[in-house]
Fold each of these.
Amino acid sequence: MDEQVQISVMLAVPDAPAAAEWYARALGAVELWNLGSVIGLSVGGAAFFLGEPGNNGWATPEAVGLPTVRVEVFVDHPDTFIQRAVDAGADPRKDPVRTHAMPWGPHRQGTFLDPFGHLWFVGDKSPLLPHQGG
């Protein structure tokens, strides 16, 4: 298959406009489009979406009582990305940024929990390349 594929997520939030405002401040998200209860955003060219569940088979982390998605972000400077989110109110307590020993070499990664209950793993780009034995 020669087709270019992009995969994205839609995060369940109770108030899409308020969440979009937080993601803009915390992650530098740019609005792609806005339907009110569903909003398209982009961070560094990576699109993701926010939606207010309406009894249609999905729910917010608050309604379920735990994170409903693990968002993976790959950047050049994970410490800076996470600190910006923490400065805007994200909870850094899950797993602080540290260097992990991986089969392909060091991988710097940490996590934060956003105010809407979504778990974000932010690391360097090393896992995006093919590696032998791992």
Amino acid sequence: GEGGAKQKYARNIEAIRTLFKLEQEHRGATAEEQQVLSQYVGWGGLADAFDPGKDSWAKEYAELKGLLSEDEYAAARSSTL
């Protein structure tokens, strides 16, 4: 989990997009994709990304809401500190 909160957020999003692609294509991850997936750090320290009132995180908040289903979003949000 190196880097600041926005870097961790970006790596989480990249990992989620990679996972969605793998699921859609019904295949395992390549070595490069495994590296991307290994960068996922979870949402524990990224509560700001789930706060619609945080102007500095507005873009990330909207991205998450659009990327995840309601259930996935609720599960991710419930894992924050």
Amino acid sequence: MTTAAPIHLAGERLMLDPMGALFWPEQRLLAVSDLHLEKGSSFARRGMLLPPWDTHATIDRLTLLLRRWSPRTVVALGDSFHDAFGSARLPATEVSRLNAMTGAHRFIWVQGNHDPTPPAGLGGEWIASFEAGPMVFRHQAIAAADAGEVVGHHHPKATVPARSGSVCRPCFVFDGRRLMMPAFGAYTGGLDVRDAAINRLFPRGGRVFLLGRDRLFSFDISWGSAMRAG
């Protein structure tokens, strides 16, 4: 049984899913970040061969989330494709799967730094940021933003002690004003939560929600190790 963790941001109750997604019940809105589709094929073009199944695996996981939450709106928080030509390299079967999603839901593609132009041949809306009620969904955080900002970009991860040594996993970072999403893509790396690039966005500290198999593990941000996670 999967257990989501509730938080409150800008007066709204949100649910953090252990798969690395956000669900906003009142709006029936599901958000994911940093899918980096076709990262494997991008690396292959540069001579670095990876198994070419990352897009299929990521879309499989997104399909499970859509079944679990039945959202009305889906927001992909930028870097949905690993590069500006990623959508053109999608296998036809994955194009069909994504277009089935964009046909069944209002699908918002938020612009990221890896994918600054609209994805070719896919449905959905392509915008710089998305606002709903008191919330704003964008790829990169704005330091002086009002409360209610949901962002991605940094791929936060945290390392915690475990019986066998330590465990490093993607995580959410939350301080009551801003929520940073973990990367959702199969081939995405990560940045430690205590790195300066993340830490400056949470100057008063915050909580980490580490992704587990069926639940999230919450602890103060200072618990995470200071190492970078690959």
